[in-house]
Amino acid sequence: MALGLTQVIVARQPRVGIISSGDELVSPHVQPTLGQVRDVNAFTLSALVEQEGGVPVHFGIQPDRVDELLGAARQALQKSDVVVITAGSSASTRDLTAEVIDALGAPGVLVHGVNVRPGKPTILAVCAGKAVIGLPGNPVSALVIASLFVTPVLQVLLGLRRILPPPGVKATLTLNLPSQAGREDWFPVRLVASPQGFLAEPVFGKSNLIFTLARADGLIRIPADANGLQAGTPVDVTYM
Amino acid sequence: MALGLTQVIVARQPRVGIISSGDELVSPHVQPTLGQVRDVNAFTLSALVEQEGGVPVHFGIQPDRVDELLGAARQALQKSDVVVITAGSSASTRDLTAEVIDALGAPGVLVHGVNVRPGKPTILAVCAGKAVIGLPGNPVSALVIASLFVTPVLQVLLGLRRILPPPGVKATLTLNLPSQAGREDWFPVRLVASPQGFLAEPVFGKSNLIFTLARADGLIRIPADANGLQAGTPVDVTYM
After folding, report:
1. Which residue from A228, B71, B87, B148 has the highest number of Cβ atoms inside 10 Å of its Cβ?
2. Chain A to chain B, count of Cβ pairs less than 8 Å apart?
3. Closest to B167 (Cβ–Cβ): which among A4, A139, A167?
């Protein structure tokens, strides 16, 4: 504006096709019956995609069957720049997602399983020149892994030349946090103001419990080479 | 969604009335003649307001005359939840803004001048129950001060109960930065990746030069009780 440049060329917003797979899933608008669970991932992932400048496009809830999942994935790949599939909760359906992604186009699955908790059963793939990412079905894992792997893909597609670290705030950890060495852990924490600056209070709970994210302000990372973090350690709390 | 709550009550987006004042200002769509300058603030402030969840509403470029500025300010106050006026560049027009704000409604101007650089001639006011903020005309100062004072107002109007610190990233300062003790300074820096983590490289230039912001990734704060910061100091870089 200062230079009178009132028109600039911008990147097209990347379209992200989102598929939720799992025989147990129903829409949040439907009352679940025994053994059913409401699909949360399609909504949390849409919010993440919008926040990062993309356009979420939904390709529905698909059952744990190769033909139907592959049909939806093909449609998503054709109509989107990136495809994200959240897996069903059982081990067998994870293999199903990998099988479907491999059938979508070459080179297919590049990485199956990452050394991150939560989120081990992650699939990173390229099919016919587009990124295809298989996320865990667990909503907490899906959101953490999407922050780590979907966000950078969107940043590149948006044309960002310099990828800055995700924003966060410095805080002091209030409790000892154990962690298995050799694996990167992400732990939800709540920020509490104190005269010495912000404190990071861990939010405990199994990683499949959504309240751990709902009650948290951000996540802290425990590096793979650490056995955990001691109370009093300065930590970077990454906003979600 | 997990609980089947598919409708929630949300806060209305706050409307922020934006007025640029100054006889020297012209629209960026117009070729400036001698002594004229393109109005940048209306656009940077609009972007900030949208980023923070508000809706910017423009009330034009107003000349340095009480009657016209007051007319526009009254209209803005009536049609907005917050009013932001960027001042002309001379000392006399700063008093003009304060005079106009005082005439808008009780209690009027609460603070005239803050101990922050850039941004000293800031006006904080409440008129008829609404926040009215007078910003410096200098585009860099206007944006820094709006981050410090307009953003929190929007967060409160949006119903945020817990105001978290603005997001940023930890980095190591590469050069000594002098600062006058007794005044809070905000300094633009560029982030450079290094094997030891991010480095914060100061972007030097007079505070009225927009390129200092254009080339920066964020700002670092030098507290009022410091004489400056030494090279090697760990700093928090606040994203803009």
Report:
1. B87
2. 67
3. A167
